[in-house]
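[job 0412] stage=fold_complex status=start
inputs:
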Amino acid sequence: MSQSERAPCSPASQGRAAPPRAMAWRRRRTAWLRFWREYRRNRAGVVGLAGLMLFVLLALAAPLLVDPAQLSLTGAPGTPYQPPSARFPLGTDNFGRSLLDLVIWGSRVSLTVGFLATLVSVTLGSLVGILAGHFRGWTATVLMRITDWFLVLPTLVLAIALAAVLSRSTLTVIVAIGVTAWPTTARLVRAQTLAVEARPYIERAKALGGGHGHIMLRHVLPNVMPLVLAQTTLLVANSIITESTLAFLGLGDPTTVSWGAILQDAREAGAISAGVWWYLIPPGLAIALVALTFTLCGRALEGVLNPKLRERR
Amino acid sequence: MSAPPRPHTERAAAPPRRRQWRPRAGTLRYIGGRLLSSAVSLLAVMVTGFFLFRILPGDPVLAMTRGRAVTVEQLAQLRREFGLDQPLPQQFLDYCLGVLRLDMGMSYQYRAPVSELIGARLWPTVLLVGTATVLAAILGLWLGTRAAWRRGSATDRLNTGLALTLWSVPTFWLGLLLIAALATGIGPMPGLFPPGGMMTPGTTGTLAVAVDVAHHMVLPVTTMVAVVYAQYLMIMRSSLLDELGGDYLVTARAKGLRNDLVLRRHAVPNALLPTVTLIFLNLGQVVAGTILVETVFSWPGLGTLFYEALKVPDLPLVQGLFIVFSASVIVMNLFADLVYPVLDPRVRP
Amino acid sequence: MTDHKAVGRTPRRRGFLRWLAAAAAAALTVGGLPTAAAETGDDGVTTTLTIAESQPVDSLSPFLAQRVVSTSIHRLMYDYLTNYAPETNAAVPGLAESWQTSADELTWTYTLRDDATWSDGEPVTAQDVVWTLTTMMTDEAAATANGNFVTNFEKVTAVDKRTVEIQLSQPQATMLALDIPILPEHIWSDVEDFATFNNDTDFPIVGNGPFILTDYQPNQSITLEANPDYWRGAPKFDRLVFRYFNDQDAMVEALRTGAVSFVAGLTPAQADALRGEGDITVNAANGKRFQAFTINPGATTVDGEEFGDGHPALADRVVRRAIVRAIDKEALVDRVFGGYAEAADGYIPSRYSDYHFEPEADERLGFDPRAANAMLDEAGYTRGDDGIRVSPEGERLSFRLHVHNNQPENVQAARFMTEWLADIGIEIRGRYVDPGVVSDALHAGEYDLIFTGWLVNPDPDYVLGIHTCDALPTEPGAMRSDAYFCDEEYDRLYAQQLAEYDPATRAELIQRMQRILYQEAVVNVLTYPDMLEAYRSDHIAAIQVQPEPGGNIAHQDGYWSWWSAAPAEGLTSESGPSTVLIVGITICSLLVVTGTALVVRHRRATAEDRE
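[job 0412] stage=fold_complex status=done
writing structure:
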């Protein structure tokens, strides 16, 4: 694999003077442009990216679109279970709140949980992976044993157990997902670290007196980052689905509005058998769409970063 | 939904562990090593299971007696009965010895041995997971082959797109929609399948029972297959694409073999290997993933049992199921490790 | 041999598609090895009543069973000394056809009916009653479920074959409400350890109730057959099946398709949806249960030792009453229960009209945020900069509210309360936690506001008793109460009503007790939720509710509903699988076998090729 050459950050950055830095910037710019050109060739990836940006924008603009007071139970604008109408395009829930508002508002929590949980797991995974790849010997053995151990614990079961053990809050959900999802990343990162460290310039850096920290931070990390990025986008999709799953099993925080929580409310109200389909379909669809956009982006990224894969498409 | 490694990480096709394996090492040593490492994992799981659920909040004895008048003596008696009056190290020791004898304690809510409860619920889960896995594997392998063979075509795009979409859908939501659509019926279409359960009570006769169970299985199996087959499809597709680029295929074609023959005789069997391995690796996770499907469809298996136990919380039962779920992952991994060399002559020791 | 399906069956016309799909799946499942052909052809019509159930059985041993589902099944399997009248809940003869009590109320004599037999043909004798009660008095494990009934028992003796005498150490109000299934000694005396015997191995289980338990598949089904020899008359349905569902929606769908005939525990939305459907009758019964929250007035032990960390301001009755006045119970009924509940003031549900308490207009703590604000202003709780009030001692009025996260109606009510209390300058920090955590917080006294709720029995003695000073914990940690309430006047009235045998006077005393509870505002009842049930009227022609009118069907005190349920006209059982089906399955399995063979051959061929 030849990721390092096309990676946005060049590994050869020994110099500290200003002109090389400018050069480095220029090189990064061209690298990005090249990256984007290649990414653009993947149509599904572009669609995914567009969808993703739309959802993020929606989440950011939610306070402008929705009046939080209308999301309170006492300030609900409608009557319970109104079918979709001009006033409530997606109908109302069991308290008479607009489902469109709820779904828009819910994107904030769902995306936040998705991103933060991924951040936790990717950070943890990268850290363990790089350490295990850089330090061979018993450190690696111990770290990989721990990784293997977590890998055999069924993710969902562990996440459920953690969410049940800790108190109910969004933070708990983030931790439960983050702590269970990292081993895959750790394995990938370790493999990549081993590949990077086998390259001659790492030898050179070592010979020039670069310490462990220097090598890991300045050489390995930048080269592993692209891979981590691709992994991240895939994990976000997973995290959002897991969040809704935990909420569905009643392990979420009942006071926050997230897509999973809306589905859970719908189920508890018996919406399916009562024929209140508009309560059930929008949040589930939102989850599926967001997960899909992230997956499409992740695959496109992988394709760009791994030419071997790209050829196949 | 179970959250095994995402299917689209095509890199994960061949589990990395296998690469380190040297073909010349002794078979026995290989098997021994795998067995040992599985045993270590199992031990780790036991430890996790014990301490993880010790910190679950809520006094189990008070939980058991909620809503009733109980005296302090009765509480003490219950604590004695479940060994909760012992110091923690003693409890841990008893627990470890118990698990080795397949005795995982008494369930709080059913007042029956955990192992018995799990034993009774094991087969429905095995039936569900087995059927779903076989169907998902057949579907995934077949569609994956077709997609790879006609790479870039409309079929490929449709297949990949559909698989990815289904993969992105939350399992339980899909299950609920299926109930709403196929069990209740929409408009003039009547409900075709039962919304839950495994069997109509009172059914007798082998054939009638088989038919009845199969009828009840349609919706849960469909849900599981829909969510699981995507990753098999993606893996099959990518490993077949890998194979198609191989030199030996060029040779085979040069020999004058027909295209479809090349595919069927050479590429597919080789591409099957990593996929089949992955199916086994995933099986354990799929077992754990049945929690959602079983809950939605009231399937009387381990998943439902876990969900019920978690609500109480029935500590020994949750703990026992945790071990069973984790152990199934370990056993399946072990199986994949042991079977892989048999399947693939290239790595036979 | 007959082969019956549940009454709930899908009409024939959809049969074929269904069978086709089933056949395909079956072929894949069983690998196509149909050996025994199912017996078809019914000679008689068997009627089956299928009931949706969701709660797992804890044990089928009456000595151990505590869950409603299990005790309800025991009502069907075994006779009790007395029963509760379906119309009024009053005590009526059961296994005992008459009873007498001595002047000092310490000796009770029950005369058993002579036409009661066990399902294995043995007669039911006084010795069975003696054995059952004595075992509970002497064996700790046997006392697990109903030990509280026999703690006052001195001695139980069989005077003759039909007469049982119970001697008490002190008078006991529940002597005609002994919810103890009487067991056959000749079967049960062989049991070695009552703590582990679950009574679920030897079918049919020998009993003397209107139904006989013939099969139990944990979390799948419980099957009972009618007892044709039951002394009150045989039930009208031949078979009763409790079928398990985990998902409320799946249950309702099963009712719609007719796979089950009865569903309880509907949500308001489901009840509304089912109301509009033909062939389905919705029964919104007056609740047996109240939904309430209690306020921590300062936790103490019986000896007055203070513990816990309840908010000090809550010791002030004004704050407690202001909290109650800020809550719109009518809105809870509308919004949380979709109208299927009753806004409540008194402690005992209105279903028990004799004991139910309604406050007078001038003592009512009705919804009035302005009045609540005024009360707090006057008592010196001024609003801080953030709008939250501060007590004269400088404490912010910020309270924790513990809520069972598995009870949607409590969660929803709590979310409403949080918003309402904010209007009167009180901050609520919701603790939506596992029931175990709620109970831990209660027992440790580490809470401010906490949700609770009880199922109230026809005799309210128990729920009243938990608020006596006596029910306070002897040491921090465990108690039978759900509030640290203690009031001398209340205790005095409690003792008085216990000894009072005149129903009207007792009812009056009980109402006075509730007035004290209401005024102190420690135990605050919010609503009496309806019990929402539905059944297929094309399966069940008539069924007894309890009490009548306005009563419920599931989980009655007694066996009335299932015993009285009459099959609807034209209800027949479905025959076994048809010939078409068997042919279909055979074809499918042949296909699968051939396919497998082909694949295997192909595999072998490729392998050879490669070698």
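[job 0412] summary: Chain C has three domains: 10-76+196-287+534-609, 80-188, 289-529.
[job 0412] exit 0
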